[in-house]
Structures are given as structure tokens and as C-alpha cells.
Amino acid sequence: MNSFAVKYLSQLLTLTPQTIYLVGGSVRDLLLGHQNIRDIDLLLPHDAETVARTFADRISGSFFFLDEERKIVRVIKQAKGDVFQFDFTNFEGPDLPADLSRRDFTINAMACGLREFIAEKNLGGVIDLFHGRDDAEKRLVRVVKPEALDEDPLRLLRAVRFAATLGFSIETRTAEQIRQRSQLILKPSPERVRDEFFLILAERNAQKHLLLLDSLGLLSRMLPELEPLRGFAPGRYHVHDVLTHVIKTAGNVDSVLDDLQTLSPVHSAAVLAHLKENIEHLVPRTAALRFACLLHDMAKPDTFTDADGRIRFHGHDNVGAEKAAFVCRRFRLSRDTEKTVARVIQQHMRLFNLSTPGGPSRNALYRYCRDLGDALPESLVLAQADARATCEIMPKEKFTDTEKPMAVVLDYYYSKFLKVEATPLVSGDDLIRLGLQPGPRFREILEEIKERQAGGMLTTRAEALDYLERLK
């Protein structure tokens, strides 16, 4: 365990004579050999709130409630660039065995006396009533008892989250018990479901995790909009049904990111750094991107036509964006996340349209970047992942090559577009001084100036002002 965490926990032991237990994920992670543990779960027989308040004062940490009714509290301490999180709770039930029996999975139902752990520097005294240590060694997620899934149906999804984040498998009987209760996933609040789902989407191997969710009956319960895609496979681009295609697209995000150094050597680091950013709490851009991949073709059944022997999905990008915005609102995602997901889906065919023999024009490049804004990298990765999902069933030479135009767009975005956005040659004040009135044309003029600046046709403020004079 991190030496700072041990120091703080040693101070905690001086604050109360009662037994304090390391419990849950802390014990599990220590058994798995994780050294730098920053999230520490602590269990007390009683007075957890009082002890936590005193502890927060002692280490100059921050105290707040996670669940005021159940007296579950958190203390956060920042030290040397690390953030340590200590969660305190009282026994649920009369004693430790009763508390452990109420937990979700065996790997989270172990405890260890904190004093013994600090003194002996090992987990020799682990209290393991449900064989969680064996399951950790076997890398299995096993429910403590089936009733635990009924008591909190979010655990149906948490089983997949632990499998995804730990690289575990769900034990066979537990998987069947989840499958039998899949309809219960609609009971928890949308916010709780969202957080667990996006923790899954933040992990690599999305295809594996999404297929697991589907096999357990959870995916279509959370996203009923995907059910019409099952078995829907019209046209030469869909040997797989569309549901399989969108899952594969989400899975292909990994390979695109792995290949970025080859696709765009100069800008790959910037793209990866961008995608690691959080749009909102627990929603990194990579998770929002995989969510968009999963939803990007959901309007194909709505827009399907078969005329003159040609199958089309005219407008599926626009209709899909509208449906995606509705899904985001149902999941209580932020406006920023909704905007990113909808925009990426609306423009997901854009890169294919830029894949012309002569390459995209400067005007097309500018307008693509302008319309996507800071979601431009996500748009490119989705298009590339989409192309790879299609190339699995069609030779690449028969499908539009998106790799070269992707590199061109990325270079334009980072080398020119972002610089223009940061330092435009003129502003709205300049237009007003020239007697122009704010309105639709006002914005069009500013965009035209930026487009010419990005294209190298205007390089100085004087040139831009002269061009404005000629527009009057």
C-alpha cells in the first residue's frame, strides 16, 4: 500500500479504541497485488461519522457525506500530487459476518483488521467467509447470494463492470442469475446506471464487454433503441446484422488508437491526450466516443429504402443524432456530453465524403473542423473504426480508404484550425466599427475570414481588415 496511505491509516488508529476493518475493494486490490491503492474502504462497528470527522481534522482532509441516511462518509486528502479517498461506514447488521453477508460479490466481501494489517504488513488475517480469496485467484466475479441482486439491481451491471475493470469472468451461475433478473436493471436511477455503464465503456476491449452485456440481457434493456438492429442486415455492407456492426465499431476504437502513431505521427499524442480528458464526472472522452460508436447506426431501420435495386439509409446520420440526443438525456448525461455524442453521430459520414482522389479541399477541411469543433478527433476515430468494422466483410480496396484523409484532417485541425480559433485576425468589434449590424450575416463574415485565414489567403490583420472593407 502507498506509504502515505499507511501513514494516514496509522494516525486513524490513534483516534478510537474500537476495531477498524479494511474491507471490500481495498482488500481485494491488495490481494491482487496492487501497490498504489488510493481508494480505501473502512468499516467500523459504530460512530463512523464521528471518527471520520476527527480523522479529516487530523490529516487536514475534506469530509462529506456519500449517504447521510446510512452515515456513509468520505474523507479526501491530497498529498504530493496524489489524491487519497477514505470511505467510512458502520456495520450493516449486528456484527461483521452480517455486514459481509450483505455485500455484492465474494471478492468484495472480505475484511482485515486494520491494526493487524499495519502491524504485520500483510493480509494474513483476512476474514473471508465466502471464499472471495479463491475467486480472486481464479479471477471470478461470483455473487455472495442471489438475493443480493434483488436488493440492489445495479449489481447486475456492476458484475460486468468488475469483469471489465479487473479482467475477470463472471461465474456461470452468477451469470444465469443476472440473466434471469435482467429486467430489474430499469429500477435503479438513470444516474447510477449511467455511471456504471460509462465505467465499462471507459475500458479497452469494448466489444467483449458489450457482447457480455448483450448475452446477459442487459444491453437492450438499457438501450432499447438497439433492439431493431438485431437481425437487420440489408445490403452488401451488412453481412453481419447492424447490432453486431455497431458493437464491432465500438471495439475497433482500440485498434485505431493503437495505430495513431502510424496514422498521424505528429499529432497522435495530442489526440490521445484529448481523448483522456473527462467531459463530465466519470465520462472520459473515450467512453463518450464508444457510446457514439454504439449508437451511430441506430437510425438505419428508420431510414431504410430499397428502390431500383439500391438500398439506402438516407438521413440516418441526422435522424441518428436526434435519437442519440434523446438517449443521452434519458441517461442524465450532461449537455456537453450530449452535444459531443450527437455531433459525432451526425457527422460520422463526413470523412468518407472527403475521401476523394484529389483529397479534401481547404474549404471542406475548414467546414468539417468548424462543424465538429473539439469533437473533431472523436469524429475521425469513429469513422475509422466504422470503416474497419466494414472492411472485415469487404476488401479494403473496395471500400473508401479513410486513413490518408484522416491524417490530412488531423494535420489541418492541429496545425491550422486550432491556431485560427485561438487567434482570429478580426473580431465582431471590427465588424461593428465598420458599420455592420450583428445578425446571421455577421457570423457568416467572421467564419469566411477565419476560413481564409486557415487557408493561408489572409495572413495579417491588415489584410483581413482590407478584405472586410471590400465586403461592405
What's this model, at a glance?
With 472 residues, the protein is of the alpha+beta class. It has helices at residues 3-12, 25-31, 48-59, 96-101, 114-120, 132-138, 147-151, 154-166, 172-180, 190-201, 206-215, 219-222, 242-258, 260-263, 268-276, 285-295, 300-303, 316-330, 335-346, 350-354, 362-372, 376-391, 403-422, 428-433, 440-454, 461-471; strands spanning 21-23, 39-44, 62-67, 72-79, 82-90, 110-113, 127-128, 140-141, 169-170, 278-280, 283-284, 305-307, 310-312.
Number of strand elements:
13
Q: What is the straight-line distance between the termini?
A: 69 Å
Computed CA radius of gyration, to the nearest angstrom? 27 Å
Shape: globular
Poorly predicted runs? none
**Number of helices, counting only DSSP H or I runs of 4 residues or more:** 26
> Which structural class fits the helix and strand makeup?
alpha+beta
Mean pLDDT: 90
Strand content: 5-15%
Across the major sheet, the strand order is: 3-4-5-2-1-6-7
Helical content, roughly? 40-55%
What's the SSE blueprint?
Blueprint: H1 3-12, E1 21-23, H2 25-31, E2 39-44, H3 48-59, E3 62-67, E4 72-79, E5 82-90, H4 96-101, E6 110-113, H5 114-120, E7 127-128, H6 132-138, E8 140-141, H7 147-151, H8 154-166, E9 169-170, H9 172-180, H10 190-201, H11 206-215, H12 219-222, H13 242-258, H14 260-263, H15 268-276, E10 278-280, E11 283-284, H16 285-295, H17 300-303, E12 305-307, E13 310-312, H18 316-330, H19 335-346, H20 350-354, H21 362-372, H22 376-391, H23 403-422, H24 428-433, H25 440-454, H26 461-471
Parallel strand pairs: 2-5, 8-9
Antiparallel strand pairs: 1-2, 1-6, 3-4, 4-5, 6-7, 10-11, 12-13
Helix pairs in contact: 8-10, 10-16, 11-13, 13-16, 13-22, 16-19, 16-22, 18-19, 21-23, 22-23
